[in-house]
Amino acid sequence: MRLRLIAQSPADFQAWATQQAQPATQPPADVLAIMDRVGCAGCHTIAGVKDSTGSAFIGTVGPNLTHFGSRVRFAGDTFDNNPENLASWLRDAPSLKPGSDMPSFVGKLSKQDLDALVAYLESLK
Questions:
Q1: Domains in the chain, start-ordered, CATH in brackets?
Q2: What predicted TM-score, i.e. pTM, was given to this entire model?
Q3: What is the C-alpha to C-alpha distance for residues 79 and 72, in angstroms, rounded to an integer?
Q4: What pLDDT does residue 48 have?
Q5: Mind giving me the DSSP string for 16-62?
Q6: Which residues are registered as beta bridge partners of 80?
Q7: How far apart are the first and last CA of the chain?
Q8: Measured between alpha carbons, how far is 26 from 35 in angstroms, rounded to an integer?
Q9: What is the dihedral of CA 27, 65, 109, 36, to 10 degrees?
């Protein structure tokens, strides 16, 4: 995993920290249904989001996705955060980064599912 260091003024850092403390928006019902079906909440945290049973997304295996869309890169700083890379990652992460804990969803997510998930995750600023 790579590590990126960003130097900021104290005021800029405080603005960033305040923004990071904000919860995510609840996904639309169709996106939530997809997330429930493939079990996103079992691995990922998304602060402020609840699954269809009312349980919070508080997984600890995968990274926190609360502000995923504000990230420049993902997967340990391996990939640029853009819709194409994210769709490929969501479809079959192990083929892109062997050893990844993210499972493959080949045959489990349609193009429509992927497009909906990508749009939601990229909206999380």
A1: 25-123 (2.60.40.420)
A2: 0.90
A3: 9
A4: 93
A5: HHHHHTSPPPPPPHHHHHHHHHHTGGGT-EEEEEE-TTS-EEE-SSS
A6: 73
A7: 22
A8: 12
A9: -60
Is residue 46 within 8 A of residue 65, CB to CB? The reply is yes
Kindly tell me the burial class for residue 12, based on how many C-beta atoms sit within 10 Å of its own C-beta (0-12, 13-18, 19 or more).
Answer: exposed
Summarised one tens digit per residue, pLDDT across range 4-31 is 788 999 999 999 899 999 999 999 999 9
Q: How many whole angstroms from its chain centre is CA 31? A: 13
Sign of CA dihedral 102, 59, 20, 115: positive
Distance CA 65, CA 45 (A): 6
Query: What is the rounded distance in angstroms from the CA atom of residue 60 to the CA atom of residue 44?
Result: 6
Task: Measure the CA–CA gap between 82 and 107, rounded to whole angstroms.
Answer: 22
Average pLDDT over every residue of 87-111: 96
Please give the single-letter amino acid code of residue 87.
Answer: A
